[in-house]
Design brief:
By secondary structure, the chain is mainly beta. It has helices at residues 2-23, 372-377, and strands spanning 28-41, 67-79, 85-96, 108-117, 128-134, 139-141, 146-149, 153-162, 167-176, 184-198, 201-210, 224-236, 239-250, 267-277, 284-297, 300-316, 319-332, 338-350, 360-370, 395-406.
């Protein structure tokens, strides 16, 4: 009983804090996200999820084997007569294996920050200052849950500074190496956004500069950088197109933050394309994505390619049928190319007729096929491995139910 009490104490304290704030008359916002469900594989046992070793993501529909959730609590703590406002934001997250009724998990503190808005005059009249732990302007591909630009963590910054043709943001984020308590690193993040280049189209330019860190008694943290050029085309057949070009070197090899295992010679080049549409007057919506990544790390040159689509046919405002097809290949130099293809069909009951309508309750059938190189590279016991649920087979399927929502 003592262990259970200690593990649930952080969540209890958070709830107690916001309960007292609500009692004091502060307006409290409550938001969040969760997904949960169950299923079974074609070989028996629980649902199986298919991911390729060396790939940066996997396609999500009918391919998520955990219960995951986030609970966000926040509110305005101060509002001045001059327009200055101060907000408190927190976010707890949890993930369990969908094994049984009681699954113990200590919540993770994903966000805890304070943001001051409208902090000055002129260029700073709409600017914000923030300090704390934060999801920092993350960019992702929804159908693969791939956060391709994500410099999040403990930090501080200024954003939404009006330069006329662009908005300027600067943040400094500090991350620590959990595998070596003596190492920390700083990432300086500079972004120019809202640069109009064509009708309904704009650019975001980003430069993340990581400081080289020499720590007594520990390996040196390499310096590095991650450069981004992202073009967003809005109002495209009821949706958008987003294209991001990235180049990283040293500890900037990754998708953001600090790569503590990188050397100064490591490099990455990445192209991420995604398009989401819902043409007016039709019953269709959907999203597609292409990712190409070329990485040189620890003397190994690897290329990853990912392509997938999720079209949805809306029979009714609340009933639709989603199909998802995704294909990933990973090619290390001097080794066989690994490949994985995943297909899912999912009838859905949704709270609306949009691609983004949630909550959604879905049944799904997923089939996956992979090659022998993918099987050999898979971690022991995972679905693609010869020691996994499908054994020596190089294909398998799973069927199940899932709910997904955000609010």
């Amino acid at each position: 009983m003592r262990s259970r009490t200690l593990k649930t104490l952080p969540a209890a304290l958070a709830l107690a804090f916001f309960a007292s704030a609500a009692h004091a008359g502060l307006p409290i916002d409550f938001g969040g996200y969760f997904r949960s469900g169950f299923g079974t594989s074609s070989q028996g046992g629980k649902e199986a999820c298919f991911g390729l070793a060396g790939a940066g993501s996997k396609f999500r529909l009918g391919n998520e084997c955990e219960t995951y959730g986030e609970l966000a609590f926040g509110g305005e703590a101060y509002k001045g007569q001059n327009g200055l406002g101060i907000r408190i934001n927190t976010r707890l997250a949890f993930a369990v294996n969908q094994d049984q009724d009681w699954e113990q998990f200590s919540p993770a503190w994903r966000e805890m920050n304070v943001v001051a808005e409208n902090i000055g005059t002129g260029a700073f009249s709409k600017a914000k200052a923030w300090v704390g732990k934060r999801f920092y302007d993350r960019q992702d591909v929804h159908i693969s849950d791939y956060y391709f630009w994500n410099n999040s963590g403990p930090g501080a910054g200024l954003e939404n500074i009006d330069l006329g043709p662009a908005k300027l943001a600067y943040a400094i984020v500090r991350n620590a190496d959990t595998g070596n308590s003596g190492r920390t690193a700083l990432a300086h993040d500079i972004r120019l956004s809202g640069i109009k280049v064509n009708p309904d189209g704009e650019l975001t330019l980003g430069a993340q500069i990581n400081q080289k860190r020499v720590v007594t008694g520990a390996p040196t943290v390499a310096g590095g950088h991650l450069l981004n050029i992202m073009h967003t085309q809005n109002n495209l057949m009821g949706g958008f197109n987003k294209l991001d070009l990235q180049y990283g070197k040293g500890s900037g090899v990754g998708t953001g933050g600090i790569n503590f295992g990188a050397t100064s010679d490591d490099t990455v080049m990445r192209v991420v394309e995604q398009v989401m549409v819902q043409p007016s007057g039709t019953k269709w919506s959907g999203m597609g994505t292409v990712v190409y990544q070329d990485t040189k790390s620890a003397g190994v040159h690897t290329k990853w390619t990912s392509i997938g689509v999720r079209p949805i046919y809306h029979f009714h405002e609340n009933y639709n049928l989603a199909v998802e097809v995704g294909h990933d290949t990973v090619k290390p130099d001097g080794a066989a190319s690994r490949s994985l293809t995943k297909f899912t069909i999912a009838p859905q009951l949704a709270a609306g007729g949009s691609f983004w309508s949630r909550p959604v309750l879905r049944a799904y059938y997923t089939y996956a096929k992979w090659n022998s190189a993918a099987q050999a590279a898979a971690a022991a016991g995972t679905p693609l491995s010869a020691t996994g649920v499908f054994g020596a087979n190089t294909s398998g399927s799973t069927v199940g139910f899932q709910v997904e929502t955000w609010w």
